[in-house]
Amino acid sequence: QVQLVESGGGLVQAGGSLRLSCAASGRSFSNYHMNWYRQAPGKERELVARITWSGSATYYTDSVKGRFTISRDNANMVYLQMNSLKPEDTAIYFCNARYYLGASGGDYWGQGTEVTVSS
């Protein structure tokens, strides 16, 4: 059974840092891009960061560039280091694994971890 389990969310003051973790299990994810999405109250889910299946390339949405860093290791773990947090980063953060050739080949989601940034 494939599972993605996020952890590391919480309440932090503006300017602070959090490190989110995603533990993926149930299959090999070596051919999967790993993504972090977030959904703020009343807003659509948005892609925050992506790391390719090989780990050789990353993508960040403009609002987090220079503040967030995505990484992955060989043990099916994915991380999102979040620095200089802002109140607008408040959201539920979701880990996603998507087959590198497209979602039809596999698309898995975690349950999410909540991040609240106070001003």
N-to-C terminal Cα separation, in Å? Answer: 40 Å
| Regions with little confidence, pLDDT below 50 for 5+ residues | none
Structural class designation: mainly beta
Query: How would the global form be characterised?
Result: globular
Mean pLDDT: 96
Structure, explained:
- By secondary structure, the protein is mainly β.
- 0% of the residues lie in helices and 53% in strands.
- It contains no helices and eleven strands.
- It has strands spanning 3-7, 10-13, 18-25, 32-39, 46-51, 58-60, 68-72, 77-82, 91-99, 107-109, 113-118.
- Strands 2, 4, 5, 6, 9, 10 and 11 form a seven-stranded mixed β-sheet that branches. It has a four-stranded antiparallel β-sheet with strand order 1-3-8-7, with no helix packed on it.
- Strand 5 (46-51) and strand 6 (58-60) form a beta hairpin.
- It is globular, with a radius of gyration of 14 Å.
Quick structural summary:
The chain is built from no helices and 11 strands.
Characteristics:
mainly beta; 4-stranded antiparallel beta sheet; 7-stranded mixed beta sheet; 53% strand
